[in-house]
Amino acid sequence: MIRLNNDNLARLPAEVPAPCLDRKAITAGIVHFGVGGFHRAHQAMYLDALMNRGEALDWGIVGVGVMPCDRRMRDALAAQDHLYTLVVKHPDGRREPRVIASMVDYLFAPDAPSAVVERLADPAIRIVSLTVTEGGYNFHPVSGAFDLEAPDIRHDLAHPEAPRTTFGLVVEGLARRRERGIAPFTLMSCDNIQGNGDVAKETFTAYARARDPALAAWIEAEVAFPNAMVDRITPVTSAADIAELRERFGIEDAWPVVCEPFTQWVLEDRFVAGRPPLERVGVQLVDDVVPYEMMKLRLLNASHQALAYFGYLAGYRHAHEVCQDPLFVDFLLGYMRHEASPTLASVPGIDLEEYRRTLIERFANPEVRDTLARLCAESSDRIPKWLVPVIREQIARGGEMHRSAAVVASWARYAEGVDEQGKPIEVVDRLREELMALATRNRERPTAFIENRELFGDLAEEVRFREAYVAVLTSLHERGARATLERLAAPGGAS
Q1: What are the Cα distances from residue 118, in Å, to 123, 166, 174?
Q2: What is the pLDDT of residue 54?
Q3: DSSP letter (8 states) at residue 229
Q4: Which alpha helices (H) appear in 314-462, and where do they start and end?
Q5: Which run of H or of E encompasses 76?
Q6: Residues 393, 332: contact at Cβ < 8 Å?
Q7: What is the pLDDT of residues 380-424, one digit of tens each?
Q8: Is the separation of the CB atoms in 245 and 256 below 8 Å?
């Protein structure tokens, strides 16, 4: 058995490519907040590919964990010199492992916030990147206003020298750079949020403005916040994944990453302190990310929600099971073709029909085993951003939106916390208690769930949406998920 670390790289089996570089030559140029599976299968992978070409060796990644649960990641990576194995799972069962070497350090902020701040103030750091999830930006889901009353934000404003949050850490790092005459870095969001760079700019400057208006003005003027569209299905690493790597390839890795073959990164070419030559390893550098971003959010991300709740209620537990069922595939393609796609502008270089078909193929990959539970989690951060805009645009244009209404109804039914067999559902959401309380009223007051204005605004007052939603929710209670989809697919089923 080969324990993954620098000393053992030369011992890796031939089928597991090792880094073909001197790791001592890599120096830090990026600080990344939120080192989860996606970051390690995506941004870190692209940088590793560059480094294996002998390029970008001054763009090594320093990971930062802010949440208590990040301690485990810190410990796992530190024990193996910040190396990890990325395993691509192909639909035919083939595994494609490689060892990623682009991370050079990992800091756990709760233990040493000053060390994180000083690293951020280091002139060598020219990019700070983020995968902190949709809920990590601390803004209201409808108004978009930054929440200055959150307890940790209030703490950071009162004690800027000892921050607890990503906002406090990053802004304190920028403040020290400004005081010391050091040029700022680029703040690059890689989260699944529409206009993620714009959102990052709005939220970080809102925090800075509450702390020091002059500092906020400097950040607004000097820091770049490029928008990006990122895409790669990366399920949570399971104990079986760790065991398979050990048994099949003889590698002991505490926290490998598994992912699908497909990967895409479309990035606005707007940086204030340089960037790695990412275009040389397949990243699309563009002037305008919006068309690509909208395509991904409304076709891929919203389709994940469209399959997740219906699939779970029908008894499935993995995305590939749902997308090997023709009834569900027809529903997904109907949503993509007739509801989401009409809301999209032209996407340069993309054939939308081919993209839609590719999505179904990706979702149906049986080797990835992406769980529906993962796709159903944190829905209150997802549905308002990915699906509600489609509903609003289709209402405005008089287009179809009954499938989108059905997705919202399936979420409301899922939030009741009991499946069709009477088994409990573990609802994972920052608004869990509020959502489940509303869902308990689904039968007595079918519109209770969508009357939550923080998530849906005034959508419950739109007659077409309300009627479609109530019809599906009623059918889910009376007939179940499969029969409801069959009814939607039948002639006149939209009524």
Answers
A1: 10, 14, 10
A2: 96
A3: E
A4: 319-322, 326-335, 352-363, 372-376, 383-386, 388-397, 402-414, 432-439, 453-456
A5: helix 70-78
A6: no
A7: 989 998 999 999 999 999 999 999 999 999 999 999 999 999 999
A8: yes
Neighbours of 345 (CB within 10 A): 10
Give the torsion through C-alpha atoms of 369, 375, 378, 382, to 10 deg: 140
Q: CA 417 to CA 437: how far, in whole Å?
A: 10
Other CB atoms within 10 A of residue 213 CB: 10
136-157 tens-digit pLDDT: 999 865 566 899 999 999 999 9
Q: List C-alpha distances in Å: 30 to 50, 65, 123, 186, 405.
A: 14, 14, 11, 10, 42
pTM of the model: 0.86
Kindly tell me the burial class for residue 486, based on how many C-beta atoms sit within 10 Å of its own C-beta (0-12, 13-18, 19 or more). middle
Q: Is 188 helix (H, G, I), strand (E, B) or coil?
A: strand
DSSP per-residue codes, 266-303: EEE---SS----GGGGT-EEES--HHHHHHIIIIIIHH
Beta-ladder partners of 127: 30, 186
pLDDT band at residue 344 under the 50/70/90 scheme:
very high
Amino acid at 101: A
Per-residue pLDDT of 231-288, as tens digits, reads 999 989 999 999 999 999 999 999 999 999 999 999 999 999 999 999 999 999 999 9
**pLDDT tens by residue, 423-455:** 999 999 999 999 999 999 999 999 999 999 999
Q: Structure tokens of 43?
A: 């941004």
Q: Return the pLDDT at 134.
A: 81
Distance (Å, whole) CA 252 – CA 242:
8
pLDDT over 50 at 495, yes or no:
no
User: How many Å apart are CA 343 and CA 47, to the nearest integer?
Assistant: 34
Q: Is 9 helix (H, G, I), strand (E, B) or coil?
A: helix
